[in-house]
Design a protein that fits this description.
Length: about 325
């Protein structure tokens, strides 16, 4: 089997380190691992194939010989360095918001639109974490009944805001007087109905990511999407309450049938016995978990779902690596 040279840009971040872990867990065919950081001296050693490797300084000349460059250093650094990686011959899979809505860059969730990978010109965008888990759950329903409208409320864990946010929640649980830094308000024992900056339309940037990215990934601009994104005092995994309106009637039973066959979806749905997806159970797993499936009695063709996924894994690192695996698979055919 052919092996590949892989760079991880932003290895010190929560997503970057998760990429490293997922590569090892999935036994990705790695020849050379090249961790990259703006501050490599602050990085530990990384083990791959029984060898320890040190991080190198992120630079425009650091990508020579790299086959796949997994980026998660922040949008500004991706904008600066991703073109250099592409120029050096690497396929860049970028986890930041830098290129997601660029019409020339595919925005890919392998279970939903793998065919779009073939459109890449050296650069593929990884969608927002909250968008990924939603479209994984909705794609089989859309294919059957065509979704007209989506109303989603998210309950997003602090790990989506990085390592400092995790530390802040842990400190505030112990000492409620710990001042907020990662968030505008205390997060322990609280909910913050704002993720990212405010937009002119009174939505947040996170909410508009879900609106715009969903349409691009699903390949259907006619789907109407509205979102409310909330930060909650949970360490790992995002949860979403999703209501959809479809053209064709979609019963609970049919939805369960469709979702049970869908790639990457795991159903936990037994309300009478208090069984449904929860962040504590889902953290550390790669599937998208769906429960609380029920018909919306307020409209003719409506359905409610509760969707939970690990935001660092399927919402970021795992999805990026699955894209690389799809590329390898296509080359082997």
């Amino acid at each position: 089997m052919k092996k590949y040279n892989v760079a991880i840009v932003g290895i010190r971040g929560a997503v970057g380190y998760c990429m490293y872990q997922v590569l090892k867990e999935r036994k990705f065919p790695i020849n050379e691992l090249r961790p990259m950081s703006s501050n490599p001296d602050e990085c530990p050693s990384y083990e791959i194939n029984g060898r320890k490797v040190k991080a190198v300084k992120l630079s425009h000349d650091a990508f020579k010989g790299i086959d796949f460059a997994l980026f998660s250093p922040g949008a500004a650094l991706s904008l600066e360095y991703a073109p250099s990686a592409v120029k050096a011959g690497a396929i860049v899979i970028d986890n930041t918001s830098a290129f997601r809505m660029d019409p020339t860059v595919p925005l890919v969730v392998p279970e939903v639109n793998p065919q779009d990978i073939e459109k890449h010109k050296g650069l593929i965008a990884n969608p927002n974490c909250s968008t990924i888990q939603m479209v994984v759950a909705l794609k089989p329903l859309h294919d059957y009944a065509r979704i007209k409208r989506i109303v989603v409320s998210t309950y997003q864990s602090v790990s989506g805001a990085g390592s400092e946010a995790i530390e802040e929640l842990e400190k505030q649980v112990i000492n409620r007087q710990t001042p907020p830094k990662a968030f505008p308000h205390p997060i322990a024992f609280n909910l913050i109905p704002q993720i990212d900056v405010a937009m002119d339309n009174f939505y947040t940037k996170e909410e508009m990511k879900m609106v715009n990215e969903t349409k691009k990934i699903m390949g259907d601009d006619s789907i109407r999407v509205t979102a409310t994104c909330v930060r909650v005092p949970v360490l790992w995994a995002h949860s979403e309450s999703i209501n959809i309106e479809t053209e064709k009637k979609l019963t609970r039973e049919k939805a369960i049938e469709l979702l049970s066959k869908a790639p990457g979806v795991h159903i936990i749905d037994d309300l009478r016995h208090s069984k449904y997806p929860q962040p504590l159970d889902v953290a550390g797993q790669d599937d998208t978990f769906v429960g609380r499936i029920r018909e919306d009695e307020s409209i003719k063709n409506g359905l409610n779902l509760w969707v939970v996924a690990d935001n660092l894994r399927k919402g970021a690192a795992t999805n990026a690596i699955q894209i690389a695996e799809e590329i390898i698979k296509k080359h082997q055919q």
